[in-house]
Design brief:
It is built from 3 helices and 5 strands; from the N terminus they run H-H-E-E-E-E-E-H. With about 140 residues, the chain is of the alpha+beta class. A hairpin with a 2-residue loop joins strand 2 and strand 3.
């Protein structure tokens, strides 16, 4: 697992470096362009004969580190919900809050027909990651998904 995490970290670092070279406007234009290409491919059915520009969107939303309240009620979590553009098979959004991480998945059923299975696997992998990082004892199960 540690090797795979290092691969992901390295891949993200390369992407951030590439995006870091762009102006904010260019990065936004690039992202909008990819979504527009996905829509064009789906509407013209080019996505049936050529690979789409992308089929997975992953977002990490940094939330508040401190506990938040609304009219005295404690905020328990942030449950992200996003949208799918044309030819995107899965949008995975992760939101941190206080000392937790919440996961939100939106999928195209034609691309991913068992979203609950993905959720269970994600929870298991997250628990393993926390144990490997020494953030919780072995055998401990988190109360939230």
């Amino acid at each position: 697992m540690a090797e795979r995490i290092h691969q992901v970290v390295d891949s993200v670092a390369v992407c951030k470096k590439e995006l870091g070279r762009m102006s904010k406007e260019a990065a936004i234009t690039y992202a909008v362009g990819l979504v527009a290409l996905a829509g064009l491919g789906a509407s013209t059915h080019l996505d049936r004969v050529a690979r789409p520009a992308c089929n997975l969107v992953v977002s990490n939303v940094a939330g508040a580190r401190e506990i938040r309240y609304l009219n005295g009620a404690r905020l328990l979590g942030i449950y992200p919900v996003s949208a799918l553009a044309a030819s995107i098979g899965l949008n995975a959004t992760f939101a941190s809050y206080h000392d937790s991480m919440d996961f939100g998945f939106v999928a195209n059923a034609a691309a991913l027909d068992d979203l609950p299975h993905l959720s269970r696997c994600t929870r298991q992998a997250y628990e393993e990651l926390k144990q490997a990082a020494g953030l919780q004892p072995a055998g401990h199960k988190s109360a939230t998904v």
